[in-house]
Please model this.
Amino acid sequence: MKILGIEASSLVASVAVLDGDVITAEYTVNYKKTHSQTLMPMLKEIAAITELDLNSLDAIAVSGGPGSFTGLRIGSATAKGLGLALDKPLIHVPTLDATAAQLPYCAHLICVMMDARRDQVYTGLYYNRESLQIVHENDALAIADLLDLVKARGEKTVFLGDGVPVHRAAIEAALGQNALFAPAGTNRQRAAAVALLGAQYYERGETQTAGEHVPVYLRMSQAEREYVEIREADAAAPEQLSQLAAIEAACFSDAWSREDLRALLTGAGRYAYLAMRRGVPAAYILLQDVAGDGEILRIGTLPDYRKKGIAGRLLAEAEKRHGAVTCWNLEVRESNLPAVSLYKKDGFSQIRVRPDYYADPKEAAVCMQKIVPQEENHV
Model:
């Protein structure tokens, strides 16, 4: 049995060939190079040195996640391309399982952790005393939650993976002498481990076609997490009016009621847009567009969604949808420095200050204006 192993789920890029019970070649690089630049040259070099005929392979084992979205996609695309070109089956090998399999006959609990950023890790818990046993399924956890989970077991635990150096101080503080760390030769992903575990799956008939293979990410990509959908609100839709009113109440001391908003939106040239983050209302903007003269009447973002760029996207999208407007105006509380900064970044300039314009509490209003140059006017 001859298995090609491919590992590209993290910074590590690795290719290996398993022939029977011998790893005949392995090429591993843990350096800041794009996997699209490294995987195929590594495979070609291995094939040249070992005189490997790729058609002699029985299957291609690929590290299938979790891990880096870009790395997994490149690894998956490489394996799928080879599978299609060579007409060979693919073997999906969970990244964390293959990493844990590098510690055979280990007497302790094994914790694999890959850095998922934002104080999170991709992780799994294992025993590998005689064979690999999954104690806790692959998961994406906050590091604090993972350490609570391991600490509750009260046993010595071997940690490995690229999440270890990021969180080593926290691990040692939480577990003390119960925290052990795998040595350099086994503390990162390797294609040899992917090929070896893949061979076990192959013998059990657990293969798939190139078309069937899909990486496992465990969580959405950053782009998907940050995706914001902009919807135009309809005054005749009770649910949307309620969503607007909820944002109003959370953002403004002089909040407009549901009925106030209904009345405003039925006026000529009035429009409201909702920013939806993963299907949840996060912010809204209310504006007036009359014959190319625009006014931002209200823009508000729920506290949990502030400082994420949502208000800026909402403002930009609203302006884009009203491309005929050549001049935008607005008022903002003098103390609302984040809003003033947002508007200035968008191209607004202060034109005057109105003392005691706002009530509850009484405060001056900064009047701002944005003139849209003709080249930015989409009419």
